Every structure is written in C-alpha cells, then in structure tokens.
Amino acid sequence: SQVTESGKISDNNSVTNEPLLPAVNISEGKNNSTPIAGINLAPDEVRILSPQTGTTGEKTTNLIVQYNINSQVEVKVNNKSIEAGIPTQIQRDEQQGIITQVWYNIPLGKGDNRISVSAGNGTPVIVGLKVKQTANQISIKPLGDPRVTADGRSTINIEGEITNENGELIKEDALVTLTAAAGKFVGADEDEDRLGFQVIAREGKFTAKLQSGLEAQKVRIRAAVEMMGERLEVRGESENPNNPNPKSPLQESLEAFTQIEFVTYLRPSIATGVIDFRIGARGTNFWGSRRDFLLPDNEDGTAVDLRGSAFAQGRVGEWLFTGAYNSSRPLNENCNGETQLFQSPQFCDQQYYTYGDSSTVDYLTPSKDSVYIRLERTSRVEGAEPDYIMWGDYNTTELARGSQEFTATSRALHGFKGNYNLGNLQVTALYSPDVQGFQRDAIAPDGTSGYYFLSRRIVFAGSENVYLETEEINRPGTVIERKALSRGPDYEIDYDRGTILFRKPIRQTEFDLFGNTLVRKIVVTYQYEGNDTGDTNIYAGRLQYNLSQKFDRESWLASSYWREDQGNQNFELYGADFLVPLGKNGRIVGEYAHSTNESAFAGLVTGEAYRFELNGNIGSSINGRAYYRSVDEGFANNATTSFTPGQTRYGANLITKLGENTSFQAGFDREINFGTAPQLLNQSELFDLFSPNNIFNTGVEAKPGSRVDNSLTTIRGGIFQKIGAGSLSLEYVNRARQDRIGDTFEGSNGQFVSRLNVPITQSLMFRAQNELGLDNSDALNPNRTTLGLDWAVAPGMTLRLAHQFFDGGLLGENAITSLDTIMERRIGENTSLTSRYSIVGANGGMIGQGAVGLNHHWQIAKGLRVDLGYERILHNILGETAAGPRFLQPYAVGQSASSLALADGESYNVGIEYSPSQNFQASARFERHTGGNGNNTVITAGAAGKITPALTALVRFQQASSANQLLEGLEDTQNLKVGLAYRDPFNDSFNALLRYEYRKNPSAIPQTLLFGSGTGSNDHVLSFEAIYAPDWRWEFYGKYAMRQSTTDLAQNFSNTSMVYLTQLRARYRLGYRMDLALEGRWIGQPSADFHETGFAVESGLYITPDLRLGLGYSFGSVDDEDFTGYRSNGGWYLNLTLKVNELWNGFGRQRVTPPQQREAEVKAVGETIPTTTNTDTNTVSR
Predict the structure, then answer these.
(1) Which segments carry the region annotation Disordered (predicted)?
(2) Residue-by-residue DSSP string for 494-519
(3) How far apart are CA 199 and CA 220, in angstroms?
(4) Which of 436, 556, 951, 1160 can bridge 947 by disulfide, Cβ–Cβ 3.0-4.6 Å?
(5) pLDDT digits over 869-896, tens only?
(6) Residue 773 or residue 939, greater confidence
(7) How far apart are CA 305 and CA 1151, in angstroms?
C-alpha cells in the first residue's frame, strides 16, 4: 500500500500477502459475484465494518473499511494519522465499485480511543473503543528438578508465562529480562544493550537456560517484563501503600521470582602438581624466585631443597574434597609477589589485555597461606545450605542474615570455618588466627569516581568490604538503602596507598520518589597492617533453628557470638534474632545485641541494641508497619550497617485504600537522641606535622565531643489521589521537638507537603513537591520546593533532572540541582553497581567499558552510548543535627558517619562508549568537580581493537586527584598504558608483546600535604618480549625492559634514575626425552652503580613421562657499591622433578577410556576397497 504524507491511502494500492479476516467474506478476483453491499457507496461515503463501538481488552485492533473505488480515505486514531508501516490488504469489487480494505493490529492507547475514517471532503465515520486496563501477571518456574550440579557446565531450563487478569495468555510479544544471583544464562540475548539477559515471550510464553556456577548455593531468579511498545499496569503496584506516588514511566515492570539450587558436584577425582628436589650451591637457584637468588646473607656451601605443590578435587564418599598445597609460597601470592585474601584479577594480574583467548579463570582454593582444604556435601535436610568444613579464605555470610543488623558481621577472613545441619538446627563455627587491625571509614563523595583515600595506608589486600549507604539528609543513623560493591566490576583499589577509584561517579545526593532528600556515603571496612599483630585471633559461631526453609517463606530463631582478640584491644559481640513470615507479604523481625569493647577514650565499654519490626497487610486494602529500635551509647559494631549510638526510634505507619484511585496514610514516629557526638575536627591540626591529631594518627573511633539530649515526635497524615496517569497528594506533618541541653531543637511546627505528578508524554513525567511550614520553620525541615523531570530514555532507565530550594532552618537559603541516570533498582539480584556487566572474552573483553564503567549508559545509536550526570549544591550543608554536628572531614572513622557534611560545589560527568563490532571497543569519560573545598578532575579512557587479524592494540588512560573533603592540595595521579600484541591465528610460531606505561605521582598520599608542595614523581616503563619456535626442537625467548623514574622533592631538587632489564633464553630438544636450555639475565641501574648478572645452563632427561632428571650449572654476580659491594656465586646442581598425577590409593588418577566397540560392517565383495601402505611416510591411504 502507498500512504501519502497526510495519511491518505491512494486507490491504486498493491495487495499484501496477508489473508483477509474470516469475518469478511470477500472472494478472489476483480469480479465479485456476491456483492458485499447491496448499494453502491458515494465518493465521499465510508462504511466501517469492524470494529464496533464498545470495550476491548486488547491493545490493538483490526480495522475493516468499505469506500468508493474512485476515492481516497484517511484513517486517524485519536486525531493522528496511522503509521505507514501498518500491514494492510485491499479487495476491489469492480461490479459494485467498492474497495474493501483491512488494516491489521492498529495500536490503541489506554482508556478511550477514537477511530475516524473519511473519504474526500465527506463527514468522517467514527468508532469509539475503550481499552480496559487489564492487570497482567507473570510467573516463572524451573522445568523438572529445581536442583542442578554446581559444575559450571550443567544447565537448567526455566519457563514462564504472562497472563491477563482472566488468566489467559497475552497475545502481544514481550521482552523479558532475566537475572540470577549466580550462574549465567546461555543462548542468544535478544537485546545485549540492556542489563541482564533478554528473551522474547511469544504469545505469553518464554523459556531460558541457566548454566550453573561452581559454588553450591541457593539461587534466586527474577523475571521482569515490559511490553514491546506498551506499558503494563502492574497488579498491586499502584495499590502499594508504601508508595503513595505513581511509578516513573519506566518502572511499570512486571516481575516474578523463583528459586533453584546448585548442589555439590561429586565429580570424579582429579589431581595435579609437581615435586621438585634440588641439590646445589646455596643461593644459586636461577630458575627460582629472584628475591632468593644471590642473597647477601647466604652462607657458602651446598643446599638441599625440596619443594612441592598440588591441587586435588574429587569425591570421597558423599563428600567433595577440594585441596591445594604449595610449600614455597602462599596460594594467593599474586604477580607482584604480594599475598592477599581472595586472589582475584586486577590490572596488575593482567598486564597484557591484548593477549589471550576467551577462557576464564576460577579461583577454587583461596588461601593466604600455603594450604587450602574443604570437605563439602549437599545437606540431607531438604532446602538446607551445604554442610562443609574448610581451611582457607572465607566470608562470614552465615553471620549476616536478613534478620541481623546489630549482630551482623560482614568480614573477609582466613582460617577455619564449618557449617553443619542437624535436622532443622544449623551450626556455624569459625576461627581466624593472626588477624590485622580492623578499621571502618565513612567518606562523603564529591560527585566523581575518586580517588577516595582511606584513613589507613598498607591495607591488607582482599580484606575490604565496600558499600554505598543512603540515608535521609537530616536523620543520621537511618539507612534507607545499602549496596555492597565488588572489586573489579565496581571499583579498583590500591592497597599500598589506600585509595579507591569507582567505575562510575558517586553523587552526594539523591531524590527518591517519596520526596525525601537523601545523601550517599561510602562505607569501607578493612584490615590494615599494624606494627605488631602479636597473638591475635577471632572466634565466632551461630546456632540457627530453621522453622521453614521454603522459598520466600523462610523463618528461623538464632543466636550468634563473636569474639575478637586484637592484642591491646578486645571486642565481644553476642545476641539473638528471629524472622517469621506474616501472611503473604508481611513478616516479623526481632533482634537483641550486646557488645563489650575496649575504647581508646572511655576504657572498657558495654552496650546493648534492640530491634523489632512488624509489617503486613490487614485485609486487602490496609497495610501497616510498626517498629522499635534502640542503640545504647556504648554499643559498638563496625562490621555492619551504619547506626547512631545513643539513639532510640519507634513508630508506626498505616495506609488504607479508600477507593480504586484514592488512599489515605497516617504515621507516628518518635526519635530520642541521648549519646555523645563526635568532636569537631580542627582543620589546622589535621595537616600540622607536629600535632598528635594530624592525619598520621588516625584512630579506630572518633574522639568524643559534646553531649546531645533531644527528642522529636512526628505525626503525619495525608491523602493520595491518582488522576489518570498522574497523581496528586496532600499531607500534613506536625513535628514537636524537645532539647534538654539547649534551645536549638526546641519547638513545634506544622507543615503541609503537597506533591504533583503529571505525565507530559508517555516517556516524560513532570514532578513537583512543596513543603510549606505553618509556623516558624523547623530547624531541620525548612520550607522546600522540588521540581523535576523524568525522561524514560530506555527500558529500565530514566534520566532525571531535579532542583530543590531550601528556605529557612539550619540549612539556610540553599539549593541542590541534580541530573542523573536512574536505573531500575531491582534490575539485578545482587546490589553491585556494574556487576551485571561481564568482562570476559578475547582481548580482555569489554576492556574499555570495564576500565571506565559505563554501566548507566544511554544508547543513542547502534554501538554508541552516552552517560550524563550533573549535581550542584549551592552552599555547604554543615551545622547541627539531632545526632550532633556535621563538619567537613576527609573521612569519619568508626560509627561516626553522622558527622559527615555535604560540601558545596558542582560536579558533572560526560561519558561515551563506542563498540561498532567485536573487533573494536572504546570508551571515555570526563568528570569534573569544582567547589570552595577543592577541585577534582577525573579522566578515564580506553580502547582495544584488532588492527589486523594478527595485531591487536590497547590504550588506557586514567587521571584523578583526591575526592575527599579537605584534601584538595594533592597533585593528580596519571596512568597511561599502551600495548601491542602480535599473534597470527594461522601460525603460532612467533608471538610478540610491546608495552609502554607512564605513571605520574603513583605514590601520592594525604601525608604528602604535611611536607608542603613540590613532592612528585614520574615513571616511564617500556618493555618488549617475543617468543619464536621455528620447529618443535627450537624455542627462543627474549625480553628487554627499561624504566625511567624522576622524583621531585622540592622546587629546586630533582633526581632521575634508569633501570634496565635484558633476558634471553634458548631451548633445544634433542629428542622426545632430552632437552637443553640456556638462559641469561642482566639488570642494571647506572645511577646507583648497581649491576646484577645471572645465567644458567641445564640439560634434562625424561626418565618417564612424569619424571625428569636435570643437571646444570648456574652463576651470578651482583655489583652494589652503595650497600654490599661485589659478590658472586655459582656451581653445579642436580634437579629431580616429578609430575603428580594421583594422590593416595589412586585418587586423582585419570583412567584412559577404552576403545569403543564398533558395529561390524558387512559389505559385498565388489564394494571392498583395496588398501595400500606407504612405508616411506608411515601413512595409510584409501
């Protein structure tokens, strides 16, 4: 069909291949012997055969129209011409002079729709259709057995359905987003630009396949859907009494959950390892660690060394055994020779992103010492967690349950841990020796991604837990949301400097849908290397009696205990908690905690904390919530969510539905503060080299300040009215304050809070909120006006522009402006910011994206995405709160996050990502913060791609300064990496790598500010290495590297040094059982008169395929005039190396699969093919 620009359809249309609707009897051909109409139609006359005026539950309709054969018609829906792409079909009846035309699946809007058809200048014919807003539902479940082995390969099928309010499958296609707490979905992702995994539900049904991971655990799966081209009304969401405001345009998503279980994989046993025995001159092991080669304190003589390493995994009865051992180094030792908890790849572990394949690495045996052992089985108790005992690195997951807050402990530790189920009783115990000092820091972000300096240097690698906490701006201690972040996907950390750089900017504020102004805080807990750890340890345990372990109906009673001996400081925590479901959506949670802590300021301190929460539905239209929580001033726990010591808060909320679009809300809340606030920071002492309170002397808790003794009683009530797609609400709030120390928080104030939400278009929502005080302005809740626009730029993503004015109170005349990308909060099962983005595959995967972290991106074209953000705070938000004063500080230690202030200034970021194909990917982001307390510029950029099929290139640049408050004097830290890799996919005989790196101020720390300006450093590193194997006998390897370092200690003093490395190796195989190798190495630093030379030659004989005997000679010398002078050593050595293929009693031995028997083939004599043998080439041809 041809459609004109005005929407008119010409009479010389071609016929589509779509069949006409069976409701219309039209025969083929131009001559219709059975006329459809008994009379001819005039040129300006139109007849609509279908649909008829009425109500429908479908969001599309088929339109059948008859008009004169010489006329043109125009079709409009809601006064807009229909689109040209709508399928149509025409039937011509020359005898009657009539055209019958059908349009298929014309989209309709919600509510009333007006379809008009006109011919020429005739009067339009109108049909009215009302689309009934049906409430859709989604369900999801596993097919068959919900348990699958945790082997990293097995899959489980998931199916789901989308139905309307009548329980019928919907007819429209829908895009379903799937996310899982563990494992990965396999198959084709229907929209790779979205977070999660997408499948299409056709005619209401969809299926997916989830591949298991390697850890036995329960896995929660979520399915969310948004109709293609439509928005759904979600059953229950608009009636949710906890959310009196309508959802933003892209939050109208349907969701459902299910649970599966990855069970322990009792795999066939496997074992691998090596045992090395060496006799030779002491300190001359050239092939070993360089730090042990030619040590100055080595004595002359012969050394006998026996070293071994092994890994084994396999079934032992009904248990799975996993173990690893290395006699020469810790299992977690990384490429820099450093040991950490939970070894995982960071940039130092992947020096060459451009080299490698699409394989992945899983660390199965994390341990900071030389041993890892784990025995595990699937519990005999249905639905229970696995039984296991282990020695190695672990997290304290069992001691941080959903019912725990004050007794919760989230730590990364090393040592013993066990978990066992005795019927419904679950027992967990752990022991960790030699723990380091434990620190908790809270940092106020500045709107950029970093660098954020911790209060300590020399952080124990892998021990950190990083969170983003959100709380009300004037209610310190009430955490609204807490997100756990993951190293790698969400941030990178420099353990020596104690710095964190996030993958995305961290805003200071956030406007939630309830109208509250929220502030974000970065909370980091970690271990740091103390001066003398001494005999330190942790003992802990938990007893949990599970009343029910059914999905979404879990309930338990439990008690926990934690004791930590830190030498001069001890800490003890114990308590009890319970969780019981109440009805379909409610629950009861209770908790008691008691702590004993040795304070640096108050000595031995004890305290208690209580928590009780009750929420649920009363009937079908009332939702209620009651709560009580109290924390003694002396209570302490730095390994859990932030709280304010010395605070009690209790209250209740009740929301009831008065009609289909009307609800009423009432609430009561009382807060009592009776603790000691942190002492105000003296900024002049912070950077005074001779002050005991400078940044060199950070404690584990804040110094006590002034007392607080006040209370706040809040009574509120309001009504909410939904008007079409918009809403209007009015609420009255009365706040009565009592201050028993001063008059700052004294008085009573009434306030009207009005909210308006108006949809401008289907994707654009206008929001307004006004808080108007009737009497004197409340000290912490002044008159405020907030205006905002929500723009649905993509499914699951909204771009929000908001501005808030303050007037009165302690905040004075202030304003906050924000432009940010709001993601669907439940897009993933975990709460990390970017962990839904995979960084795997060849060339380092999405390396630019991984380095820059454009997770909140907006796709403007295929392969092109942008990321935007803006925030402006007019003045510093300082001064008093009910919990104590707020002031500017680099970090708040311990549980003193309530003292963090908001700094003035503006911050913005612009990011772009371009990935036209798998062979090229690039991304860049610019961030800038300016304010009265300092400036910070963050630049991150990265690109990776194939120049030719054999040549791959990588470039990465990073620049940032300090993002902490008051640390504005630090110089920028810059890092540039450029890499080239050559690897011919068709000929692997030659491979080469070229690397250049530039580092500026890589070691700058806040303590640098104590020594004044002029301190800085620059490093240039260039290296080239190549390997060449012309045939199976010869192999040549060479490497050359140089580093230039410049250090500026003052404006008139600078020092530059060069370090060189040259390494060459040649290997020749005399046969399949003998080889000969020669290698030499030279390291020199001319400016320090340092030279080191070493070489070795060795010949080896494979006595068996697993046993090699080596005989060689090694020699080395060191010329170090500044320290030890000249020294050298050398001598012959004998080496015996055994490859380990099995352990005790054949455990781990890989049995050869016997040849499979083949069915006999009977052929006719004439079909027999003669066989000839070529004796020269030892091949058989047919």
Answers:
(1) 1-29
(2) ETTTTEEEESS---SEEE-TTS-EEE
(3) 18
(4) 951
(5) 888 888 888 878 888 888 898 999 999 9
(6) 939
(7) 32
Beta strand pairing call for 1172-1174 and 1179-1181: antiparallel
Rounded to two decimals, the pTM is 0.80
pLDDT tens digits, 341-363 = 887 665 555 544 444 455 667 88
Query: What totals of helices (H) and strands (E) does the chain contain, helices first?
Result: 2, 72
Q: Which residue in this structure is represented by tokens 């972290």?
A: 853
DSSP class of 887: B
Give the integer Cα–Cα distance in Å for 1057 and 117.
85
C-alpha–C-alpha distance, residues 195 and 250, integer Å: 14
Three-state DSSP class for 250?
A: helix
Contact predicate 1061/1042, CB 8 Å:
yes
pLDDT digits (tens, 9 = 90+) for 764-799: 889 999 888 887 667 677 788 888 888 887 666 778
The token pair that represents 39 in the structure block: 């009379």
Q: Which two tokens stand for residue 900?
A: 């963090």
Angstrom distances, CA of residue 15 to CA of 9, 68, 426: 13, 17, 71
8 Å CB contact between 986 and 706:
no
* Residue of 1135, 1148, 1136 lying closest to 324 (CA atoms): 1148
Burial call 285-314: b when 16+ CB within 10 Å, e when fewer: bbbbeeeebbeeebeeeebebebebbbbbb
pLDDT at residue 832 above 80? no
pLDDT at 641 over 50: yes
Structure tokens at 258: 């299910």
Residue 773 has a CB neighbour count (10 Å cut-off) of 20
Q: Is residue 152 over pLDDT 80?
A: yes
The domain made up of 8-131 has a fold known as Immunoglobulin-like (2.60.40)
Residue 1146 is given by DSSP the state: G
The DSSP secondary-structure symbol of 78 reads T
* Correct CATH for 135-263 of 2.60.40.10, 3.20.20.140, 1.25.40.10, 3.30.430.20: 2.60.40.10
Length of the chain: 1182
996 touches 1035 (CB < 8 A): no
Spell out the domain ranges in the chain. 8-131, 135-263, 270-410
Q: Give the angle subtended at the CA of 21 by the CAs of 20 and 26, to the nearest 5°.
A: 60
Which residue type sits at 851? Answer: A
Please report how many Cα atoms fall inside a 13 Å half-sphere around the Cα of residue 433, on the Cβ side: 8
Strand duo 197-201 + 217-227: pairing: unpaired
Q: How buried is 236 (Cβ within 10 angstroms: 0-12 exposed, 13-18 middle, 19+ buried)?
A: exposed
Alpha-carbon distances, residue 695 vs 544, 638, 833, 890 (angstroms): 43, 20, 31, 9
**Tokens encoding 993:** 């790598």
Cβ neighbours around 949 below 10 Å, total:
11
Q: Could you give the CA distance from residue 834 to residue 923 in angstroms, rounded to a whole number?
A: 15
Same fold, 8-131 and 135-263: yes
